[in-house]
Every structure is written in structure tokens, then in C-alpha cells.
Amino acid sequence: MSPKISTNYTKTQHNLWQQPWGYVESFLIVFGTLTIGFLWEIFIGKMSVHFFVFPMNVLIGFLYVLSLIVFQKYLFKWQLVMWFTSIPATITLLISVLLMVLLMGIFPQSPCSNTLVNVLGLNHITSHWAFYLIQFLLLTALGLVTVKRAFPFKLNNVGFILNHAGLFIALLAGLLGANDVQKLKIIITEKADQQIAINEQNHLLKMDFKIYLHDFQMDEYLPKLTVVNNNTGNIVLTQGNIEIDTIKKTSFIFKDYQIEVEKYLSSAGKIDDRYVAVRDVGTPPAVFLKITNLKTKELTSSWVSCGSFLYPYEAAKLNDQFSVLMTFPEPKKFNSKINIFGKDTIQNIDIEVNKPFSYDGWEIYQLSYDENKGKWSQTSTLEMVKDPWLPVVYIGVFMMIAGAIYLFWKAPKGLNSKRNTLKTP
User: What confidence category does residue 423 fall into, taking pLDDT thresholds of 50, 70 and 90?
Assistant: First the structure.
């Protein structure tokens, strides 16, 4: 007879909050934290931590790291400490952070007219109480896991420690240094210098250096033609081409009308009822159109111009309902040619959008210009940003890169040893 196999298994029931805490407890902790954050947002308002600046943030950061070491070293048997270093805690905290990021993508992060969105703080997630609380929990979990692997130190843990410690340093530096970041605007007129900047609270500040603006320059895309409704002023959207490049495409059909571009002037001034090529401040582009009614074969012609701050726009009326207009040329690239006079004098600097210039710890960006005058603007607005914690963030990033390289370097050896083990009889 074959032996009987016992099918009596002892099922262990895991009660809520019984050690070790699992996914249910982790979900309740994270959900409770988010709830507290949203309640604080409703009753207290947007988080403001103006006291959290240098040197107070350095002291708080030091005490925080020290407390993580003490807790993991001497109080590691506490259930809360064990939970922070568990997989359920890590997964649920990461999901909650992703949820907050998702809300950031769904709701525009700008002033909103929706009362509910404003009350819940969904239009400023990065300064939301719930976001800060979840970040704090995730940072604590990351720090405790790093300390757990670092003490006692083992060479096999180098890659893990570099990756996790680097991420911890980068996140902590970003959190501690958020209020130490300075953002200033400086408005400069051509052939003049400026030393006074404006901060985010619209206060005037005197800089340690001056910026001289040689010239502001702008390259534009070709203007376009479009059809608008005369009654509403809205662009008419149809299946046909209702917006064309005035040079690249010289003809299009709208309903019963064929519109052809006979002549294009990139810079024109009006004399009597026609436009002539003129290059002067404020002279806009213009096109001469030939319009054919495809039903009646009636032929008309008209000049069309988008106008400028000096010249009015001019449209070609198709009928009582529709007209052809020229849109304003869109900026392709704009830049400022500047000199900086300070402890170091630097000349002939070209500042473009997304191409900043670094000077004395400041990143100088091209921000805007006088939009009313467009390419004829004689003023340029630059943004200056100083983040003293950025080097610390870079240290964390370089640590993560070093950890990744180390793990990549060690991986083949581990794979070879496993293969050799499998081949051993």
C-alpha cells in the first residue's frame, strides 16, 4: 500500500496590526497620511515653510539623519522602524507618490477658478501638505534601509548603499534647499545697464553686478493666413486648409472661394491703398491676395496684413460671414547680447532660451521681452536663478551613477559563478 499523505494544514490567521505589518497596514498608514495632508490643506491652507532656510534647514537635516542612524542602530526592533524597512512600505509609498504626480498631470498647476480644486490644493501639488508628508515617509524609509545595509559594512553592499544613499541625498537636498533657491527677474533696456532685480515677492534687490544689454534679437516663423467668422471672431475649423504659410503654399480653397497669394512682403508700409517694401521699426508683413468665387467666377483682390504696434491689421472680406486674416508671426528664437560687469567682467555673452549662462553662482536665462513690440522690442527680461544646494544634489546623482556602474561591473562575476555551480556534478 502506498503511504497516506496528510492533508491537514495549520492555517495561521494574520490579525490586523499584528507583527509584521503587511500590505493592509501599509495601505492604512499611507491612506491616513494622505487624509491628514488633505485635511491640513483644507483647514490650514497652502504649506508655507519660510523658516526652513539656511542655516535652520542644515541643522534640521543633520538631526534628521542622526535620528535615522540612532533608530536603525538601537531601536530596530520597534514595529514602526521594521515597517519602514519592509517591502510593503516601499511599494505603497511609491504608489502614493505616483498618485500625487498623476494628480499634478491631471490638474493644471496654476491659479484656478474652480473652488473645489483650490480648496483641495490640487493646483499646487508640489507645495501640498499631503505631498510633503508622503515625501517625508518615503525619505525615512529610504534612509533607514540605507543605514540598515551600511551598518555593519560589507563590501557586497557597496552598490546598494551607493544607489540608495545617492537617491536619499538628492531627495533630501531638494527638500531642504527648496526655500534657499533664489529666482530674480531683471528688465534691461538696449544700450543701458541694470543692477536692480525683482524677486518673487516683487521686492527690488540690488545685485553685486551689472548687466549691459547690447541688443535684443528675434527670428520669426513665416506668418500664416486663416479664415475667421466675422460675427464671433473665431477661427473657422473645417476639413479644408484654413491656415497656410504665406510663402510655402500660395493657394488654398475655402468653401466657394479660391485664395491665391500673388505677392508677399516680409516688411511693408502702407501708402494709400497698397503696401510697399519698407524696412523700419514696426513695419509688418503683408500679402496681396487674388480671391476667386468658384460659383460666380467673380475675381477680387486685396491686401492683408497682421499689423503691428504701429500699423492696424487689414483683412480681406470674403462675404458677410467670413474674412481672411493674417496671424502674427510666431517667434522662432530670441536672444540677448549682454555684458556683465562685476568682480569678473565678461563681454559678448549670448543668452538664449534654454541656453543659460553661469556667473558667480547664478544661472542667467532668457525669459521674455516686450510682447507688444515683438521683434522690435528694445527691452529684454532675464531670469536669474541661484540654488546653493544644487552641488549636493549632484553628489547624490553621481553616487547613484557610481552604484550603477559598480553593480554592472559585479554582475558578470556573479553570473559566471552561478553558471560554474550549475555545471559542477
Answer: very low
pLDDT digits (tens, 9 = 90+) for 142-151: 999 999 999 8
Closest Cα to residue 205, out of 196, 218, 194, 214? 196
Give 408: exposed, middle or buried? Use CB within 10 Å, 0-12, 13-18, 19+.
Answer: exposed
- pTM, entire model: 0.77
DSSP 231-295: TT-PBPP-SS--EEETTT--EEEETTEEEEEEEEESSEEEETTEEEE--STTPPPEEEEEEEETT
134 residue type, one letter: I
Q: What are phi and psi of 267, to 5 degrees?
A: -150, 115
Please give the angle made by the CA atoms of 409, 410 and 413, to the nearest 5 degrees.
Answer: 115
pLDDT at 51: 58
Encode pLDDT of 172-213 as tens digits. 999 899 889 999 999 999 999 999 999 988 999 999 999 999
Q: From residue 248, give the alpha-carbon distance in Å to each of 163, 235, 313.
A: 53, 21, 22
Categorise residue 191: left if φ over 0, alpha if ψ from -120 to 50, beta otherwise.
Answer: left
Domains of the chain, residue spans:
23-151, 183-219+332-386, 222-329
Which of 16-30, 224-238, 277-291 is predicted with the least confidence, judged by mean pLDDT?
224-238
pLDDT tens per residue across span 274-285: 999 999 999 999
Beta partners for residue 362, in sequence order: 359
Q: Count of H helices and E strands in the chain?
A: 8, 18
Contacts of 277 (CB under 8 A, 6+ apart): 265, 267, 268
Tracing cell 514696426 back to the chain, one arrives at 282
Q: 221-230 b/e with 16+ CB inside 10 Å = b? A: eebbbbbbee
Q: Is the pLDDT of residue 37 over 80?
A: yes
Mind giving me the DSSP string for 32-59?
A: HHHHHHHHHHHHT-S---TT--TTHHHH
On whether the CB atoms of residues 307 and 284 are closer than 8 A, the answer is yes
Contact 184, 201 (CB under 8 A): no
* Burial class of 68 by CB neighbour count within 10 A (0 to 12, 13 to 18, 19+): buried
Is beta strand 346-352 parallel, antiparallel or unpaired with respect to 357-359? Answer: unpaired
